[in-house]
Amino acid sequence: MVALLLGGGTLYILFSKNGEEKSTESAGADNSLVKMQLQAYERLILLTDRIALPNLISRVNQAGTSAKDMQMLLTQNIKEEFNYNITQQIYVSPDAWTAVKNLKEQNMLIINQLANLLPPNATGMDLNKMLLEYLMNDKKGALHEVVSEVLSYEAKKVLVSNP
User: Fold this and answer.
1) Total domain count for the chain?
2) Which of 67, 120, 122, 162 is the most buried (most CB within 10 A)?
3) pTM, 2 dp
4) Is pLDDT of 8 > 70?
5) Residue 2, in any domain of the structure
6) C-alpha angle with apex 101: 95 to 104, nearest 5 degrees?
7) Is 57 a member of any domain?
């Protein structure tokens, strides 16, 4: 009888320790996922900032370029930044990813539409000036701020739900 109790107690201890290890491993996996989600939100906030038209213009601006060349530089830079961060979508909510995609598409649309309004001999400076004037006069020009707020809100939700 004593042997049976000792054997049962030993089995109980082994199984309970095994269960604790599994829950610890599970908690570790949860923490890793939370870290990856937060890093994805950080990267997407950085992407949003980098493709915000005022920041993009100041970073990509090259003296002596034509409006068409500047149009190409701006849109190419947006595509490259977006493609570099495309894998982050697996870690963020569908709404957050849609907001980032919409920002990319809207910025490229604005650049292309305004570039098409310029005469063939317009300079890159002319396009940049037109883009900045548009941003100052149209609420849609501040979409990058709204997207940053959405991403920040989503990241905070991840933090609150995983203390």
Assistant:
1) 1
2) 67
3) 0.78
4) no
5) no
6) 145
7) yes
